[in-house]
Amino acid sequence: MKKTAIIKGRGAQINKHNRFLKNEYFIEDDFLNYCEKEGDNPDNNRTQYIEIFPKTILNKVTSTDIGMAYSMNPYQGCEHGCIYCYARNTHEYWGYSAGLDFERKILFKRNAPQLLEAKLNSKNWKPENIMFSGNTDCYQPIEKKLEITRDMLKILLKYKHPVSIITKNKLILRDLDILKELAQLNLLHVSISITSLSEETRRILEPRTASIKNRLKTVKLLSENGIPVNVMMAPIIPAINNHEIFELVRTVAKLGAVSMGYTIVRLNGAIGEIFTDWVRKTLPDRADKILHQIEDCHGGTLNSSEFGKRMRGEGKISEQVAMQFRLARKKFMSDVCLPPLDYSLFTNDYNSQMRLF
């Protein structure tokens, strides 16, 4: 089967209608014909950056599937363009599409460092697990210019507050100076997301992320600098990357990773249609196989929302994945683990003032 022409440098190939909006936007053929005649481009595929002004930056996590108390996201939307990203649906709450809009309309929170410091200094704040990028990557391309994540890390170090980070981007190495200080105090866990060891697979699944070579280098350099690294194979997509489990665990263990985790792909909300459109255009020869095997992991549908099952799946394929991971971790990571975070060092301005009395 011949591949359909795709939008280069993007994951999603459509702008799925926002379920919260009454009106739907279409580009009609007569308008496209007019643009072609006039030499105009109706869609330049450029990324837009839009500043927003939130009143809070910490989000309380209530999911029993995720071992963290709070997440914080300096950015909404993500230019990395990972086609499977569960966070796409959140863009609909901002009035945009979970499809191309998620990758091309990036909302940034310049006041995030100030909001974080104010929260840490509040009278009743007690240190709890906070994770960067519970939703979208805190080291996506625009961070190189804005440095919002770096400024937030400085604040966490100032108050000696533990933090976890998950990212796909080698840009995290820019902040090695701060990360090393946090790690020396047992205040840091870093997770590097590596979905595949194949650069070809990476390019179609995650078009604007760091290369596999650079991500593996990031694992190595972080580990060599005393920073505990967990690698997330997230997500595992049947018939695309589930055959790589043993080799990926073996590779990152050699580079110094002390922990490994995974999730099974789940195509919740609008992502089901976006992914289906993408896989039929990008991998038409095995699209049906991929979709059917994903359904096999979720009771016959593309998504499960049930806590305890949605991230691990069910059925024979999910059982095989879980077994492979248990064996791989036992073989390559049996004698290492992530060290516990130290919550005892935290101090804020309120507590410091109280000690005077």
UniProtKB/TrEMBL annotation:
PROSITE patterns registered for this protein in UniProt: RADICAL_SAM (PS51918)
Coiled coil segments of this chain: none
Iron-sulfur keyword on record: yes
Domain Radical SAM core: 64-310
Keywords: Iron, Iron-sulfur, Metal-binding
GO MF annotations in UniProt: catalytic activity; iron-sulfur cluster binding; metal ion binding
Record InterPro entries: Elp3/MiaA/NifB-like_rSAM, MJ0683-like, rSAM, rSAM_sf
NCBIfam families in the cross-refs: rSAM_PA0069 (NF033668)
Protein's name in the database: Radical SAM protein
Organism of this sequence: Urechidicola croceus
